[in-house]
Amino acid sequence: MEGDPVILKSDGFPTYHLACVVIDHHMGIRRLLRGSEWLVSTSKHLLLHQALGWQPPRFAHLPLFLNRDGSKLSKRHGDICCRRLPADALLDIITNCGSGFAENQMGRTLPEPITQFNLTRITCHSALLDPEKLPEFNRLHLRQLVSDETQRRQLVGKLQALAEEAFGSQLQDRRVLDAAYAERIILLRQGHICRLQDSVSPAHSCLWTRPAVGRAQLGAISERVDVIAKHVPGLLEGSGGNLTQDMLNGELKKLPESLEGTKHSNAMKLQRKCGNKYRRCFPDGEKVCGTAEVAVGTIVAGPALRQGQQGAWTPSEARGRNQEWAQSLRVHRCIYGATPGMP
């Protein structure tokens, strides 16, 4: 210990050493766990307690968390960005990388670490904390939140607010802010995103806004855009809401046969053209929805699904909004405005 350490500065403010002793005493701290870098100051703090006539707490010093380069993990240096991450995920990676537990285990949530922690299992060596592992921990805890109905409702509210903030001025159809739609997005994307904010990132904009596919672009591929579009509801309704990958492939192959004068290549070009934005968002469409709803929706469905007054929906579309594939159909409403007589 250094001689005559400063405990009260000339401006009347205490140094950390005096301040922490006073705070610990008045907060009634009886057991104190802190980083090993404070080990050299422990004798100083014990003497301060003795000088003030106070009973010191029992001290235990823990090994430090280090970056991959061996430097000390510190919030001052921005070593790890934990903004908007669940506290359980941060606690989980700390308990997983550190010591004090019988075994490493992912997915711990309070009060599990409290009941499982054993001070005698603390090791003397520092722990290496890899921030690149944090997304995986966060993905796991996000799925746990989704599985709980109460927590999921809270996530839905947060996602609605995030979508409004991110795409408010770009939303052509504000029904994407409905709670049912937001919940569907959460259920579909769990296991694929690490944070709720990822669902409103530019890579996921196709879930909230329409792709920029003009009527002229579609017409350049085939003059029978409307004819092809009218067959899409039939594909969907014929599945009874239980569309599978095999069913989809079979129906897509038969589609040109039912469209007299329409080449198979043109029908598929239209599907790929309108589905381009979805593929950029999700390279593997089947992983997104679990089945092939997205692929069906990417056939040009717009003109056949909307009729009558602006804002009115056909019965088939209204029923479809509660089905797996409803969100896919919404993507193609970008061509409505270019269709004469359609809203």
From TrEMBL:
InterPro entries: aa_tRNA-synth_I_cd-bd_sf, Glu/Gln-tRNA-synth_Ib_cat-dom, GluQ/Sye, Rossmann-like_a/b/a_fold. Pfam families: tRNA-synt_1c. GO terms for biological process: glutamyl-tRNA aminoacylation. Keywords: Aminoacyl-tRNA synthetase, ATP-binding, Ligase, Nucleotide-binding, Protein biosynthesis. Residues 4-81 form the Glutamyl/glutaminyl-tRNA synthetase class Ib catalytic domain. One of its GO terms (molecular function) is ATP binding. GO terms for cellular component: mitochondrion. Belongs to the class-I aminoacyl-tRNA synthetase family. Glutamate--tRNA ligase type 1 subfamily. This is Glutamyl/glutaminyl-tRNA synthetase class Ib catalytic domain-containing protein. It comes from Monodon monoceros.
